[in-house]
């Protein structure tokens, strides 16, 4: 393992070095920082002021010198100051923590959800569940993050919060939910076989009844526990917040702080989770289908072990392996999603940092951001390779 | 070769009771069977024709202001409403769709061309060419797509709309290149390549006439899916203010401006959003249908 | 009573082109300790028949008829009950050893899994049994190699591991579906020797499926020839080889190159196997048969014995066949 990492470092370090050059080329291309542009546009701008600004931003020197200057400082930990004079490194560190919360929660949930749905879709192929989740996956694949986040903000919070204040189930809603439960239960048990020898009609009835029962139970629980209540004894703040990652000036014990984090994180992470789940479920489904029709699964069945064991220990175990690589490589897409979601929900994270740096055309901030992103991508790839080797004995690290 | 007088009938209709089909016919037939894909294709074609042809007849082009109905919700005069300057929603959405489709088409073309080209060269010639290209691909991959495109776009504030798909095309080809490379590496070992070489075919001919046609499937699928991906990326770019700039519109631009006006004029957000979702959904279904059609391992027998 | 009795087995698959009638009215028996060879071309239904015995066919398949194992009916059993037999009483090994083992688990683990699926034993006991089984099939240094992964074995060794795995619970019947087709000739011989060895040691019944007549001649007691989903001839191995009664069998045997055919054109059976969808009445071999008469086109011949009850053939003209030098009918000089 150790030797593996060392060997990979021989590849990784030159790559990061080349990446820094690419980053630098990209960033120097953006032109003059906004502050300087504004200064030039002002009528009483003096050349002296402009020159000092340029020195401040570090763009007065020729490119090669700028690069070596920046790079040598960067690797030592000195990332310079941004357009408003704040030190970049501590600022970014703060922002990273915020974004990391979002990214980790979204990653885990979308993978778990996607894997589960993918597995079930594969072993119950062509059933109503499969078609439905496939459609959902396609849907969320086709919605831009901005649209989804905007939608959630409006209907997940702004319209929902008043209802949450005084929740109740109107008769119309009750009927709809009951019908939905009935239909869902029925459809899930209904399969499109041909030539099924034994046609279990009672299976549909059982399924429908179970669905109805579940829906009824949920409604009952809701009525008992929540109905007519205003939460937090009349607290006027909205239950599902739409702005920021924490309530400003919030003081509470650990549980309350976690709750606060949770409610603030709910909507933005849901947006990312839904989009991530779409991709992972499709991929897992395809991988499962592939694996379940393989020769070694046939051998496993021939051994006479239970179908559940075959599916889990032979099927899922092998189907998960390629997924690891996908999840790790997806970090870039996840970050892009976070950029948008953070902006819409007003989080002060890396996404906001990037957007601001872009708007201000601040070279040092952008350099820091892009380099950190590149390093993260490379690190995640490395982790993915290690995990992959652990899971697949054919790839051993030596 | 003479048939003896009492020879039996060797071939009779019992042997081939199922008609033989050529490969392409099978693929096309499988595609036509895929209902979601067919419906999506129909919807997509209808939308495309509509947004390119209807504006000729529609009295409200995307820049014309109707001073009599500012910020009006959907009505008979303005089915998609108007914005605060009186510009017609339907006209703008149609124009935006035009632009977005054009951007997607150009980007998909570039991505496919570059990806296939680089992947083929890397996979076929291997050796140092492959190493260099792969390192280059890794380098491009260290940065998320959005980040690269955003940073590049910032440097050209006044650039015309077609620079967007060009930049995207120059950066987003990595996935396809990897797939093509992998396929080339495995196919070049096959006997038909050896046979072609033995007959004296040159590398270029082998690549284009022998190996590449085998990849038609994955390439077509990837090209189709990259259309949807491009539309979504362009939306994200517009969100950062780096997409198509005013006075030109794209769907992403409309969504972004619609978001800011959401509280008071939600229709300015919903209609372009619906357009994007419908288009992407259809493109994805068509891509899925194509993938199913090309994949010989598919069988619809439930296990 | 025979150990395994298959009667009027019919297997149908729904496909987009129609219903594939893969196995048609197949009947045969297997006694304890005997080796039955099933011979046929690709698509003759030999694999599907045996997958039906094991219960490994997709759920959408329609299976009619009867399969009696030691008196118990296997057709129509719910899947949970099927696992009682699978891997326990009836074992099966498959064609391609390179892909038939799960790459992520050790060989020992996979064999132990087979043991523990049917017996309540501790992990250690299952592990010991794995080592024992590896030794049985001739894997050297079994106690160390039990911890190896499949990719660390060669093709022939993998096939032996698979054989070991199938023997884990001392089944009474082992179905070997083309176990040597994917292997080199020398390795082939080793595998077959291993099978013979096991058969002698445990007196297990073996159903050996193959398209290689040479392999069958060496190992089988009885042979069943299949064509287009039906059994067209069954009998003791010597009878089949020296006194075949069905033109297809004769054609098959005649197609084997030998010293006698040295220098001459190879004999072949002209034409191709029929499609299994929408089969017409009559003998399925008739388009290619040199002995065809009108009855062959309209009436499907039944599998029946003439004078020797152990040798059945499915041909309207089987009574005449022994008196004609049928082999010459397939000679290229006649049909050229």
What do you see in this structure?
The complex is a heterotrimer of chains A (398), B (303) and C (336). By secondary structure, chain A is mostly helical. Chain A has 16 helices and no strands. The longest helix of chain A has 39 residues. The radius of gyration of chain A is 27 Å and the shape is flat. Chain A starts with a helix and ends in a 7-residue tail after the last helix. The relative contact order of chain A is 0.15. Chain B is an all-alpha fold and 303 residues long. Helix content of chain B is 64%, strand content 0%. Chain B is elongated, with a radius of gyration of 25 Å. Chain C has 336 residues and is of the alpha/beta class. An 8-stranded mixed sheet of chain C has the order 6-7-8-3-9-10-12-11, sandwiched between helices. A 4-stranded antiparallel sheet of chain C has the order 2-1-4-5, with helices on one face. In chain C, β9 and β10 form a beta hairpin. The mean pLDDT of chain C is 85. The interface between A and B is large, with 52 and 46 residues.
Compose a concise summary of this entry.
With 398 residues, chain A is an all-alpha fold. Chain A contains 16 helices and no strands.
């Amino acid at each position: 393992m150790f030797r593996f990492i060392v060997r990979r470092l021989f590849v990784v370090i030159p790559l990061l070095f080349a990446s820094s050059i690419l980053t630098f080329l990209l960033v120097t291309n953006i032109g003059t920082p906004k502050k300087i542009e504004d200064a030039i546009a002002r009528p009483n701008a003096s050349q002296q002021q402009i020159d000092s600004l340029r020195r401040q931003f570090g763009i007065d020197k020729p490119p090669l010198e700028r690069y070596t200057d920046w790079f040598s400082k960067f690797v030592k930990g000195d990332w310079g100051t941004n357009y408003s004079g704040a030190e970049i490194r501590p600022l970014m560190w703060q922002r990273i923590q915020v974004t990391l919360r979002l990214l980790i929660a979204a990653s885990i949930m979308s993978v778990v959800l996607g894997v589960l749905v993918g597995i079930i879709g594969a072993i119950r192929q062509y059933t109503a569940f499969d078609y439905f989740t496939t459609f959902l996956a396609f849907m969320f694949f086709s919605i831009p993050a901005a649209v989804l986040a905007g939608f959630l903000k409006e209907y997940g919070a702004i319209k929902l919060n008043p209802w949450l204040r005084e929740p109740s189930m109107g008769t119309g809603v009750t009927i709809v939910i009951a019908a939905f439960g009935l239909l869902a239960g029925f459809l899930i048990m209904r399969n499109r076989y041909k030539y099924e020898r034994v046609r279990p009609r009672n299976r549909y009835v059982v399924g429908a009844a179970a669905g109805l029962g579940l829906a009824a139970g949920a409604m009952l629980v809701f009525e008992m526990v929540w109905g007519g209540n205003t939460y937090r004894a009349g607290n006027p703040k909205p239950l599902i917040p739409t702005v920021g990652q924490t309530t400003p000036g919030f003081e509470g014990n650990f549980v309350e702080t976690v709750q606060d984090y949770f409610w603030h994180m709910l909507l933005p992470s849901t947006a990312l989770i839904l989009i991530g789940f779409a991709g992972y479920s499709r991929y897992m489904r395809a991988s499962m289908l592939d694996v379940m029709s393989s020769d070694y699964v046939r051998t496993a069945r021939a051994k006479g072990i239970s179908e559940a064991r075959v599916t889990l220990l032979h099927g899922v175990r092998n189907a998960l392996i390629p997924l690891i690589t996908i999840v790790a490589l997806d970090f870039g897409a996840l970050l892009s999603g976070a950029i948008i979601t953070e902006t819409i929900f007003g989080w002060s994270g890396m996404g906001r940092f990037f957007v601001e740096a872009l708007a201000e055309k601040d070279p040092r901030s952008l350099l820091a951001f892009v380099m950190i992103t590149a390093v993260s991508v490379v690190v995640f790839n490395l982790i993915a390779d290690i995990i992959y080797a652990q899971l697949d004995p054919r790839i051993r690290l030596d | 070769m003479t048939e003896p007088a009492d020879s039996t009938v060797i071939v009779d209709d019992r042997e081939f009771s199922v008609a033989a089909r050529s490969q392409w016919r099978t693929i096309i037939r499988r595609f036509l069977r895929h209902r979601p894909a067919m419906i999506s294709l129909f919807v997509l074609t209808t939308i495309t024709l509509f947004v390119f042809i209807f504006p000729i007849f529609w009295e409200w082009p995307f820049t014309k202001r109707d001073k009599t109905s500012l910020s009006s919700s959907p009505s008979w005069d303005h089915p998609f409403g108007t914005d605060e300057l009186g510009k017609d929603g339907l006209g703008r959405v149609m124009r935006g769709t035009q632009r977005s489709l054009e951007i997607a088409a150009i980007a998909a073309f570039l991505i496919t061309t570059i990806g296939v080209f680089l992947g083929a060269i890397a996979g076929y010639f291997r050796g140092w060419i492959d190493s260099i290209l792969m390192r280059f691909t890794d380098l491009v991959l260290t940065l998320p797509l959005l980040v690269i495109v955003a940073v590049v776009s910032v440097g050209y504030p006044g650039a015309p709309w077609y620079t967007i798909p060009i930049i995207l095309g120059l950066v987003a080809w990595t996935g396809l290149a990897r797939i093509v490379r992998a396929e080339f590496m495995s196919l070049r070992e096959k006997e038909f390549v050896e046979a072609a070489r033995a007959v004296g075919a040159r590398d270029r001919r082998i690549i284009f006439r022998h190996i590449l046609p085998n990849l038609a499937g994955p390439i077509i699928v990837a090209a189709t899916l990259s259309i949807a991906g491009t539309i979504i990326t362009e939306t994200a770019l517009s969100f950062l203010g780096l997409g198509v700039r005013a006075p030109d519109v794209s769907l992403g631009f409309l969504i972004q401006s619609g978001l800011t006006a959401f509280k008071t004029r939600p229709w300015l957000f919903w209609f372009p959003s619906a357009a994007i979702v419908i288009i992407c959904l259809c493109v994805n279904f068509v891509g899925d249908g194509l993938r199913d059609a090309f994949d010989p391992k598919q069988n619809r027998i439930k296990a | 009573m025979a150990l395994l009795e298959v009667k009027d087995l019919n297997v149908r698959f729904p496909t987009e082109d129609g219903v594939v009638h893969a196995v048609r009215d197949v009947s045969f028996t297997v006694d304890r300790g005997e080796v039955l060879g099933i011979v046929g071309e690709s698509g003759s239904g030999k694999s599907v028949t045996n997958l039906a015995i094991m219960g490994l066919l997709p759920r959408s398949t329609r299976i009619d008829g009867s399969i009696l194992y030691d008196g118990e009916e296997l057709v129509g059993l719910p899947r949970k009950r099927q696992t009682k037999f699978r891997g326990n009483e009836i074992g099966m090994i498959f064609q391609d050893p390179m892909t038939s083992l799960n790459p992520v688990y050790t060989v020992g683990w996979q064999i132990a899994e087979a043991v523990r699926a049917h017996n309540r034993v501790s992990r250690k006991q299952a592990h010991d049994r794995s080592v024992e089984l590896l030794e049985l099939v001739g894997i050297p240094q079994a106690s160390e190699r039990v911890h190896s992964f499949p990719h660390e074995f060669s093709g022939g060794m993998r096939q032996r591991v698979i054989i070991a795995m199938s023997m884990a619970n001392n089944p009474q019947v082992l179905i070997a579906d083309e176990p040597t087709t994917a292997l080199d000739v020398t390795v082939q011989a080793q595998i077959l020797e291993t099978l013979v060895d096991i058969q002698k040691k445990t007196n297990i019944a073996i159903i050996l499926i193959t398209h290689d007549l040479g392999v069958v001649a060496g190992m089988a007691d009885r042979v069943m020839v299949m064509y287009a989903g039906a059994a067209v001839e069954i009998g003791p191995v010597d009878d089949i080889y020296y006194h075949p009664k069905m033109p297809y069998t004769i054609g098959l045997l005649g197609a084997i190159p030998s010293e006698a055919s040295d220098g001459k054109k190879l004999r072949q059976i002209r034409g191709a196997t029929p499609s299994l969808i929408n089969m017409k009445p009559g003998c399925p071999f008739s388009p290619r048969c040199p002995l065809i008469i009108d009855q062959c086109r309209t009436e499907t011949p039944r599998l029946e014995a003439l004078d020797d009850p152990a040798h059945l053939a499915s041909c309207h003209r089987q009574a005449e066949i022994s008196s004609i030098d049928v082999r010459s009918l397939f000679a290229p000089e006649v049909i050229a």
